[in-house]
Design goal:
The protein is α/β, with parallel strands linked by helices. It has 9 helices and 7 strands; from the N terminus they run βαβαβααβαβαβαβαα. The protein has a 7-stranded parallel β-sheet. β4, α5 (about 175-180) and β5 form a beta-alpha-beta unit. α3 packs across α4 (about 140-160).
Length: about 290
């Protein structure tokens, strides 16, 4: 195994999940002096670009970042304007692509089945009606959720020639109550966790809910230790904190290169100065025994 890379572990029980009710401390099993011998060598920084294939501009900007070596992996949308071309590029160039599950933005590919469009729009109308609807289980939409999620998993398989080993969600809706409670994502894959927050950044109820969701995820899927968005870039100590965590833990940073500021950061010298001597993954590890 590459000694510079940290392999995934399947989180076990509550003690292995970073506490979102408190500060960003290490998971109990990873506190100083309590690491499992031989499990981790160093940390790992994964920079993942969302919305691959959404449209030509998004794909092209993301591809530029991949070419610069500043993006580890991408999350691919299916049934969208540029999903076919993006998949062909990823296969040809060996770009690591997971599925970016889309439950909220209307499918834009010309070949999308009408029934799929209708079912997805039913779901979107519910999820976007109120912010809290994401955490509400809707029994009347069970079959629609099953159909829309299964259709995207199958389309990913068609486009990429393999099953999705990693899934996250557009607007993070892969964490909505119906997807979680219906267990619609295949067991054992990599799934994106909730964002990680310091004490005081979110309400106690919000942090406790996120903690409960991450614990549920950890029983079925592989998770990174922490998740952050790339922006905002200020205050500077925010990015410094992310880099510090990535020196010891597996940290995913979510980015959207279509955003001008993020694209500039990822294609210039700033990303290299920020990362410093922290290992930036060449791809997203797919299992507990994988390396970068």
């Amino acid at each position: 195994m590459n000694q510079g890379a940290k392999p995934f572990k399947m989180l076990q029980e509550d003690r292995s999940v970073p506490s979102l009710a408190g500060d960003l401390r290490a998971p109990a099993s990873e506190e100083p002096g309590r690491r499992n011998s031989g499990m981790y060598q160093t940390g790992l920084l994964i920079i993942n670009a969302d919305d691959w294939g959404r449209d030509n501009d998004t794909t092209d900007r993301t591809l530029e970042c991949v070419g610069c070596g500043s993006v580890s992996s991408v999350s691919a949308m299916v049934f969208t304007e540029d999903s076919e071309r993006a998949a062909a590029i990823a296969r040809e160039r060996g770009i690591d692509a997971g599925l970016h599950l889309n439950l909220t933005t209307k499918f834009s590919a010309a070949h999308t089945p009408g029934q799929l469009v209708e079912r997805q729009q039913e779901i979107a109308a519910f999820l976007l009606r109120r912010r809290l609807n994401q955490v509400v289980f809707h029994p009347g939409l069970v079959r629609s959720f099953e159909y829309v999620v299964a259709a995207q998993l199958e389309e990913y398989r068609r486009l990429y020639g393999k099953d999705a080993a990693r899934v996250d969600g557009h607007h993070h809706m892969h964490l909505c109550a119906n997807v979680l409670l219906q267990e619609l994502l295949p067991r054992g894959i990599v799934v994106r966790r909730n964002f990680s927050f310091q004490r005081g950044e979110k309400s106690l109820v919000n942090r406790l809910y996120r903690q409960a969701v991450d614990r549920r995820l950890a029983r079925r899927y592989h998770l990174a230790d922490y998740l952050f968005s790339l922006s905002p870039f200020e205050p500077q100590d925010r990015l410094d904190r992310i880099r510090s965590l990535a020196a010891r833990f597996m940290v995913e940073v979510e980015t959207h290169p279509i955003n001008a500021d993020e694209h500039r950061f990822l294609t210039g010298s700033e990303v290299l100065l920020w990362a410093g001597d922290i290992l930036v993954a060449r791809r997203y590890p797919a299992s507990p025994s994988s390396s970068n």
